[in-house]
## 1
Amino acid sequence: MKKRGLIFIIPALVLSSCAVDMGIIEDKIGPYVTGKVSDTDGNPIEHIQVTLDWGKYTNETVVFTSSEGQFKSEAVISPEGQATLNIVLEDIDGEKNGGLFETVSETIVLYEDEGKNSGEQIIFELDFHLTHATASENTPQS
Amino acid sequence: MRKTIKKIILSLSAAAISTSCSLALVNNENEALEGDHKIVISGAVSELGTNNPLQGIKVTLQALPANVLYPLPILTLSEYTDNNGTYSISAGGFSDVITCKVTAASADPETMSYAPASQEHHISWSGPSFDEEKLTFFVNDCNFQLAKTDAQ
């Protein structure tokens, strides 16, 4: 009886310790907007707060650049096949991660047919180069 | 005299062996990965107790060679959770079996302090989580619940 109990318990313990989903979940289809944020020397900047405002179609999205200086977010394209993106890049950690960088705010119009096709996904690639700022020019807001 | 010489030779040999062993453990993290296998790890980070999603948590992936007694990371990447408390890390260039250590921690302990947490996942490049067509291993729901601590 004890041996039979162990036969059932041990596999259960193994399965419960695995954090891996037992089914493949495909990547979302997108479209996506991806970006690379670097300084004027081309060095990636980590932990830049990126706020994406797609206007009336959805709420704001906040993401952060990775250790490679990259970010990715789902794009919100209107039924007409275009989107106006208000994007703000803000250095929120002061002198950390390469120094204090200026805040950048841009409005970008994206057209769906101009997106890059990557397999099943449409990707819009953005590239930003930030310059160092003085503390008085760019006080972190958050 | 002979005993002294023998002791010196043995000491030098031991030193040479230990040096060569330590060289084998030198961190090769900066070496370019040349494999064609990829991993995608995603999940959510929330506050323990309240389940509130945590934005701006730093999630670090360390890829370690498996079956090594004292492994050193061959790849380290960091992402941050978005305003929904979710993250996704993609990394490629692998070929051998690896272990992935995923750690969630406060990006700025001075303003937002949470106790860090880690998980390890054995990546075998097989099974239902492995997409053979894309050569990608998916680890979904790699979630963390972090306990709040006093800000440092």
## 2
Amino acid sequence: MDSLITLAVTGVVLIVAWVIGSSVESSHFRRLIAREQTLSKIMVSNLKRLPPNWCATSSALVAGEAVIATDYFKVFAASLRKLFGGRVRSYETLVERARREAIVRMLEQARSAGANAVWNVRIETTTIQGKQQGKSAGVEVLAYGTALVVSERH
Amino acid sequence: MIVLNTEFVPGKKIVEAKGLVQGSTVRAKHVGRDIAAGLKNIFGGELKGYTELLVESRRDAMQRMIAQAQQLGANAVINVRFATSSITSGAAELYVYGTAVVVADEV
């Protein structure tokens, strides 16, 4: 009897986590797309040097960070996937959200500094350990680069 | 102090290299934040407390690096790199390093 109740509670939590988790995720993706569109004028590159005919007048280090949590359903789906192997889609979207959010925040900082390019972009990813051994609570991403005001030399 | 992660400084030339400078922080949030994070782990979403922690850590680590560069008599730190690692649950390390240089205006 007890194990049945535990099973039922787990099932209900799974369904609720799936419904809320996926709505949180899709609204985050919608907001990301809207913010990325407003930032599309800034050139982003991980090149170390500028093209030879360009010159930069102003520069500053900009950085953006984001920590996105896993949800109960994602962890469950991933543990099922680990039995059979293959793409763990539930975690792919998680790291994608964290990376895009960090990059958007970095670009917003560059825009408020008046820059039109961000050069030498580097991205760092780390998992945050959860309370249970071996389970991750989320993924943290740090994106950074050099914001520049560039123009073409004649 | 100019801090950049490129190998060049726009409009300036590097006169002297002073060597590697670094700064690091290991930080943790109070237990209340950890409980809130535990709840977030059911439904997903951003862990704002941990993002804040990361921002504060970055500022701290950079300040330490800049203090080191000032001690060496540099006026810029270039080719800056960040590295992050998780030490234990709820604590994160952020390490920043770069090359301290003296720059002067290009003539």
## 3
Amino acid sequence: MKIFKDAGHLFRLASVFLVGGVLFLVLRGFLVPSSFGQYGHYRGNAVKEAATQPISYAGHQVCESCHADILEVKSKGVHKGVACEACHGPLAKHADDPASVQPAKLDTAVLCFRCHEANLAKPKNFPQVVSAEHSGGAPCETCHQPHSPAIVAVAGGSQ
Amino acid sequence: MNMTRRQLLILLPAAAVAWKSILAGTPETSPNYNMTEHWWGMLVDITKCIGCGSCVRACQMENQVPDGYFRTWVERYHVSDFDIENPKVDSPDGGKNGFPPSSFSDGKNFFVPKMCNHCADSPCTQVCPVGATFVSPDGVVLVDQKYCLGCRYCVQACPYGCRFVDPKKETAQKCTLCYHRITKGLTTACCENCPTGARQLADLKNPNDPIHEFLKTHAVQVLKPYLATRSKLFYYGLDGSVR
């Protein structure tokens, strides 16, 4: 073949490109994760990995499955919509092992005023008090039971 | 180590298979969750927010968010009726410990909880140079913690200021809409712990989700609608002064 006379350098160049191309494809096969492109231009397994994080807040349904007595009291009061862990803190560990992990004792002086301390920016229909003036230093639970906070008249005497 | 050519040739494919499985990973799956059946968003009722910071604390506990960084936070707005274009905004420690008494006595005062808007057309996912952040098939904007380089492009791109780079891990962090919870049928930590129900997780693909009734009967708004990010964080009672 006349046209390929003295064309050895072209074949050498082409083989370099060929080897380079094959090397690229092999490396790509090794380095690109198998789940890449499963849902889009990202590693598909990253979605599942995001779902593996452990849970801290068990959710009120879990609490209610054991503490039905508290649910009974709570469902009749204005705090019926407040989830247990909003005050009691994250207790998934307690739900997993109720015997050995016990919830901490709560301080109403801190907890109640997180929500009920008067603030101009709060909705006007939300019950608010100025803590310094409201109870004269007495703890909230003297008059209010946190699970159903409305004050009920005690039969035959003052509180 | 002495190894014959034969042994090496046997070992090489075995090593390749092992490496492949490392790349693939073995994540734990939620067996009953089908991501094509969901399209997540959230509803925030500003008229119910009392600025207690329960959502901020819950988020930090649930997701081990480092101190001084926030995946969700609460802002307090003061809008003077004489200057509605320039609201005064404060958010001491993200509103984590509530808010001190207001120093204003006039104008409008209200709280605005903020977090990732989980935009369907999110600017943050478009700028990632390594494909480490994305909108999942169920509409949650997530970060691939193994692939994120910590380059901060996405932090700059988010118009709502919802991302940060973790000081220890050096990867971008953001609200995952508690993906580990919602895939197991739970609500997010912030919604679970909101005492007034101001925040509600919404599944827009579920026709029985109360969000649909709410969207039909209420005037809702998203933040910065002119950016056309198709935000899925719907606000009820949002004031025009909120940025």
